[in-house]
Amino acid sequence: MEENSTRPIQRVIQQPTCVDWQQGKSIGESLLEMFDRCLWTDVKLHCKGHQEGEAIKAHKIVLATRSPVFQAMFFGPCADGKNEVDLENAEEEIFNLFLRYLYSDRVTLTEEHAFAVMDMAHYYKVSSLVLYCADYLTTIITPSNACEILSTAMLYELTGLKNVCCSFIDSHAQQVLKSNGFLNLSENCLLYLLKGDTFFAKEEEILEAADKWSRKRVLERGLEENGTNIRQCLGQIFYHLRLPTMTHKSLIDNISRKGYFSVEEYSDIAGYINNIPGISVSTNSCVTRLPEVETIQVSIESEWEEISDSISISFEITVSKDVALANIILSKMRPHFKDLENLYSQTDCSPEVVLGEKAKIFLEEYENKVMEIKSERSERNYAKTKYFISVLEHYKQNLCDDLGLVLTVSVVIDSIEFKHKFNVKQNKLEEGRVDFNPPLILKERSTPYLVEINIQYSCEHRVQIKTRIPERSKVLINHIHGVKLESTNFSTNYWDTKSSFTGIKSLGFLNFSNRDISKDTTNGMENLNIPVQSN
Description:
Layout: H1 27-36, E1 43-48, E2 56-58, H2 60-66, H3 68-75, E3 84-91, H4 92-104, H5 111-123, H6 127-138, H7 146-155, H8 159-171, H9 173-177, H10 180-183, H11 187-194, H12 203-220, H13 227-234, H14 248-255, H15 263-273, E4 293-297, E5 301-308, E6 311-319, E7 323-330, E8 333-337, E9 344-345, E10 352-355, H16 356-365, E11 371-376, E12 386-391, E13 393-394, E14 406-413, E15 418-425, E16 433-442, E17 449-457, E18 463-470, E19 479-480, E20 483-487, E21 504-511
Parallel strand pairs: 1-3
Antiparallel strand pairs: 1-2, 4-21, 5-18, 6-17, 6-20, 7-16, 7-21, 8-18, 9-13, 10-12, 11-12, 14-15, 14-17, 19-20
Helix pairs in contact: 2-3, 4-5, 5-6, 6-8, 7-8, 12-13
């Protein structure tokens, strides 16, 4: 049958070409071939747009096995026993993709079809396909489709997809605010987004996007585009605009002509911004939005190098809010071999092939050299024994950099009983990275967390660490919002390298969005899919 460019190829009943076509196939492959060939079908499914006589042929038992809706339709107490079913709201192309999953547990999705397939899977209560589609959607999130994917995740209560989508949106907030998808968000979805402490964009841009969103609703409802109606359409969203975090000038520039701020609201927000005593804001959040991941740089390398068997660092982390330690970036390090004069290398040393009678002459010529000798004996003629002789050179220190040696990084935080060793492979002076997976939660408390880190090469009996000493004359601000780092053994002695953050370049911390957590409690941390470390 020739392929029709405007309609899917109609499947026709075909008998198997051989009696053992099932051999070598999995159950899913066999069922899918049975479906594709229309073998032994017992039901016809008429989709939207089908002309008279057109139908998709399938098997009741397979459909009922995969979907409780089909089970009730074909074998439930109200089943009518008919062998033809009209599915007026089902598009043929989408329904074919849906059926292919039912028969084989897999289907090829595209962005164009994924949402419709998920809707159909939800309607027929095929939860595994809903999750299959959700996993696919996590791989195609962009600033232009992120809002649509978030809406779908919230509609079907897909927590994993929702979290991945929110993380992406938070990291691309400025682009998302300018997308058409943002203007099409439902009120609940927009409210959920704006609750996020990590929805990181200028509040002026968020206010402008929310204003456009509300004006669109006003026009869709056929209302007059005035301040009263715009404010009414904003609803609870208005109270999640963090206006108190703006500058006074920016506040005036952005709200002076909006027409939906009361005198009392403006007075309180302006007074808070200008630090007027006794002024508080009860309407809008005063919490500054932050990026999802923030980095604290703890050292700047100097030109001076230090060689040691291992590096030990001890410091305190003080947190005034719940955060998570996400990663530690190591300084550039290089291996330094002990007793290098006794080490030799075969690098650039091609073996010389020498016959037996000439071996003595060759050895006398290189009498004071270190050599590696391998032989290939001739049983019949000793003189024809071959010797493969390599003259070794002293190992050069710079060759150590390309060995790909493994650093062992031990991290201990006694106060939360955390102790773990990480293996980090460094090549060509690259910065090593230790990732905490999942990130390590540090809950807000009055006393600091003591962190002890030890770094050494796994073959420490032969290799030392060479690294640059941090620049002590340059002062770094070792803190971000709610997080402060401080060395526990700081010394004014410039050469006391162990009193600094030698070996560490920076630490990465994860800020929580707090969308699903009450501001007054840390209950519900488990919803973040990050294990909470107990104090």
